[in-house]
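Dear support,

I submitted the protein below through the web form. The confirmation email said the job was done, but the results page showed an empty box. After a refresh the structure appeared. I'm attaching both so you can tell me whether what I see now is the final result or a partial one.
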Amino acid sequence: MKGIKFDFTNMFFPNIEKGIKFDEIDEYKEKIKEIINEIMDEEPGFISLLKDTKYLEKILDIQDWVQSFESFVVLGIGGSALGNIALQTTLNPLNYNYMKGRKTPKIFIVDNVDPDFVASILDQIDPHKTLFNVISKSGTTAEAMSNYLIARGIIESYGLDPKKHIIFTTDPENGILRQISKDEGIETLEIPPEVGGRFSVLTPVGLLSALAGGIDIIDLINGAKDILEKSKNTNVYENPAALNALLHFLYYKKGYNISIMMPYSNKLLLLADWYRQLWAESLGKKYNINGEIVNVGQTPVKALGATDQHSQVQLYNEGPDDKIVTLIKLEKFERDIKIPKLHEGYSALSYLGGRKLSELLNTELFGTEYALTEHGKPNMKIIFPEINAFNVGQFIFSYEFQTAVMGKLLEINTYDQPGVELGKKVTYALMGRKGYEEFSKEVKEKIEKKEKFII
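What the results page shows now:
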């Protein structure tokens, strides 16, 4: 099976005037070797889960039950939702929920508490024919739990049995959802304790909704395993994930603190959303592993080709030298459309007649790549020969490993997210959660003391 390829041509000097030189890579060859060995020895959760088949087996055991529903609704946020969304939009048709003759459930992913958004999903489902998948390791995530309470309220209002319409994905031992599942006999899948949310797409967090939507989750895992084997190679020039991390690190040291991912495929676009959380939450840190204040992090940005050639590429080409652009190319589209030969008397239109949209889109990609290079802006390509579960699994694991390597190079803790916690605490306090009374007073006092400037 053909796999994805990484084209780093336009990251290097002399193709890019300020590009990375091979001597700079060579200076880090031993460091990268040490890092790869460290990661393999430590075996973080996103690696160890690929060796344990119990998670996959449990999901496959309940396949018939899950796929017997008309609708499957994921209730989660952040790492509990972005991977699900990416898998569905990438591996299923963009009009999947509206397809006639579809044999698997409609998939809805509720990843916010915007009442208009939540109501719009609820309007589309029949509770009698819906399975709700509540995803939260702790069971205390305010957004997911609010939507769970809403869904449960609807289920009970129809006199339905929650055990027949709810499945939890949560911690194997601890948390509110685990306790409820024990008390009420609700079906539950485990989130491996050692796997954080943004690394959890290849656990039951992402695999259950993928299975519900008819995605080949075995091929997804096999693609990840393929890149795992490649990632064990300690020669940086033969390890695409490690080389990608090192190039981003070296550019970051030169002031390139923005990383743009720009797929030329609507189906691949939301892989960039998943990447944004992985890169931002893993690498944006105030402290290094020695407790020193470093305030590091490379800002990930999502763009879509060719749409954003008409909104962002002007900045990428002529703006400051602070961006790396990763273009994603799809060689074989699932479908294609031929442009009719019309208006042949008009040269501004006649050149398009008889061509295919896929040809036009990939020519647009080449134009962006060429222009970025001519303007001296570092850029690279990830090439998908086609979209399938194996190739998407490759992509996901490659970026998980790349993130782990980048974290080691930055000397930070890749797997925590302390910067997210304060916002959560404020929400708990102001929404009246027990135990946060004093903090609520503190927040309100600070707000009152501020000098207001509102126009």
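Response: this is the final, complete result; the empty box was a page-load delay. Residues 389-410 form the longest helix (22 residues).
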